[in-house]
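Predict the assembly for these two chains.
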Amino acid sequence: MKFSPICYVRKIEAKEMTEGSREMMIPLRLEEVSKQYGDKTAVDQIAFDVREGEIYGLLGANGAGKTTTMRMVLGLIYPDEGRISYSGKDYSEEVISQMGYLPEERGLYPKVKVCDQLTYLAQLKGMKRKDADRELKKWLEKFNVMEYYGKKVEELSKGNQQKIQFIAAVLHQPKILVLDEAFSGLDPVNVELLKATVKELRDNGTSIVFSTHRMEHVEELCQRITILHRSKTVLAGSIKEIKQSFPKEKIVLRTEQPIQGLEQIAGVRQVDSGEHGLTVHMDPIDAAQEVLQQALSQSAVHRFEIMEPTLNEIFIKAVGGEARE
Amino acid sequence: MNKFWTVLAFTVVNKFRTKSFIVTSLIIAVVLTIGLNAPYFIGKFQTDEAASVGVIEGSSELVPLLEQHVNDQEQTELVLVKVEDQGSLEENERVLKERIASGEMTGYLLFDETEELAFPTMTYKSEKTMDFGTVSQLQQALQVIKVQVVAPTLGLTTEQVSQINAPVVVNKVQISSGEGAGNVGDAGKTEGEIAVATGMVYVLVIVLFIGIMVSGQLIASEITAEKSSRVMEILVTSVSPLKQMFGKIFGMFIVGISQLLLLGAVVLVNLMLPHNQSMLTDMNLDLGSVGFLLIFYALLFYLMGFFLYAAMFAAVGSIVSRTEDLGQAVMPVTFLSMIGYFIAIFGISAPDSSLITVTSFIPFFSPFIMFLRVGLTDPAVWEVWLSIGLLAATIFVMGWLAAKIYRTGVLMYGKRPSLKELRRAMRAYKI
C-alpha cells in the first residue's frame, strides 16, 4: 500500500469548546490561518489552540512553515487569511509584553554584559529595570550561573549562552512562550535542567508553543501536536490519539533460543535481529498471536510486546513518506 | 514612547561604554591638540639660523653695499661669507663648492659680467632645490640696494622714493544689500573677518561631512550587527521597528553631537592658550568675529543632514544580514554625501557660481552647500528657508521610507534583497 499523508489528516480535538467564556480563556488560538509569499504558500489553513498550562508541539521538516507560523503568532507578520487571537483578543501592543520568544538562531549582543542586555530586553517588554534585575538574579541562581551576571556574553561557553538566551525569553514572565528548538546545543545535564524548567513554567500556567525536531522531547513534554508538511497540516491532535489511529505494526520479541521460520507466517513483512532480540514488522498485526505461538513452540519467551508506533515513526511516515517520492 | 527612550538610552550608554569609542575620541582630541599647537612649537624649534651665502670679494661694487645692508638689519637672516678671488671663475667655483661641502655656506652668489652702469644680473647657486627663502631675502636686499644706487642718478631724494614705494590701500568690506540671511551683519565684514569666516566654513563643512558620515556608518553597522547576531529576532518581538529605528537614530545623534561638542571644546581650549592667542592676533584674526548665526546654521544643517543620512544608513543597514556585506551596500549613500561634500569644497573658492546656487537647494547636498552659501555669501532669507524647507520635507519622506524598508529588512535573512524582492516582501508583510 502506498502511503499518502493526506488520508491521515484528521483533527482530533479532545473536547469542543463552544461556550464563549471558555473561548476567552484560551490564551492562543489560530483559526484557519494562511500566509502567502508571492505565489508561494508558506502556511496553509493552520488551526490550533494552546491552553493555559499546555505545551503544544509544532513539528515539521525544515521549510514546512514552522517559522512563518511562529512569526505570525509573535505578530511580526500578519496572516493573509484567518485569525490569531490572544485570550479572545486581537494582536495589540499589550500582547507583546505577554509573549516570550526563544528563536532557533540564538543571538544576544556579544559585547554587552549579561545583566545590561537582559534587563534591557525585559524593559522593552514593559518591565521595570529594578524588577528585571531582581528576576534575573533569581534565574541565574536557579541555573547555578550567578557568576555570569557581570560578564559579557562572548566570554561564555555556547551552552551557557543558551541558558542566558532562555532566561531572556522568560524573564518578563510571559503568558505565551514560543520555544524554537529550545534544547539544541546543550549537554544532557543541561537539557534535563531546561526541560524541568519548561515543565515548571507549564505548571505555573504558561502556554508554550514548542517546536523541535527531537521527537523524544515532544513525546515527553507535549500532550497535543501539529505536524506540518509543505505548509499544510498533515496531523493534529493529542499524541495518544494520533498513536492509536496509526496501526500497530511492530512486535518486540526476546527468547532464550533463536527462533526459526517467522518469515513464513502470513502478515510478517520483515524480521530484524538486534542486540536485545527480534523486531518483527507486521502488516497487518492480526497474526501477532501466531508469531507468539511459533516462538513458544521453539523456546522460552522473555519478552513479547506489540509496540505502539513511536512519534518518530509517525513523523517519518507523515512527512518523510512523501519526501522520498 | 517609553520603549523609544529605552532603546535610546541603551544605544547611548552602550556607545559611551565601548572602548573603541572612548579610545577614538581620545585619539582625535590628542591629534587636534597637537595640530593646533604645532605651528607654535614648529616656530619655536625653527632656529632663526641665518643662511650663509658666499660671495667673491671684489667681484662687484655691490658686495660692500650688500654687506652693509645685511649688517644694518636688526634680525640678520643672511650672512655673507666673503671668499678671496682666486683669479678665474673655475677656480672660484671650485673653492666655493668646497666651502659648501664643508658646511660653511649653503650657496653662493655670482655676479654676471655686465655693461657699465647697468644693474648686474646675478646667479645664486645652491645644492637645495627649494631654497626660496634665501633667494627672496637676497632679492629684497638687492632691491633696496638698487633703489639706493639708482635713485641718486635719477635725482630722486629718499622721501620721493619712499613716497613712490608706499603701498596703495584698498580696504575690503563685505556688506549685505538688505534681504540677506543676516550672517553678514549690518556693519559688514572686514577682510580679517572674511578670512575667519572662510576658514571657519571650511572647517565646519569638513566637520559636518565627517560627523554625518561617521554617525551614519555607525548606525548602519550597529543595525547590521544586531541582525547578524540575531538579537534582532528578539528585538522585533519586543518593540515596534519604528521605535527601534528612531530610538537608535536619536541615540546616535546624542552620541555624535556630544562627541562633536567635546572635540569643539578641546579646540576652543587650545585656541584660548596664550601662545595661540598671540599668534592669532599677529595674523590679525579675531575668532570672536564668527557670528552667532554661522554657528546656529552650522548646528541646524548638522542636525538636518544627520537625520537625512541617518535614515538612509538605517534603511541600508536593515537589509544587510552580514557585516561583511555592509561596506558595499552603503556605497551609494556614501557617494551621495561625497558629491555634496566635494561641491562644497569647490564652492569655497567660488561661492557665487551657479553650480553652488543650484545645488544649495538639492536636499542631499544642501546641508553642506547652503551652509557654505550662508557662511560666505549673502543669500536671501527666503532662499535659505526654502532650502531648509525642502530638506525637512525630504527628511520626512526619507524617514517614512526608511521605516518601511527597515520593517521589511529586519525580517529578511540571507542574501541582500534586490529592490524588487524588497517590494515584494513589503507587500507580503503588508507594510
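Chain A has a mean pLDDT of 82. Residues 247-308 of chain A form a domain with the Alpha-Beta Plaits fold (CATH 3.30.70).
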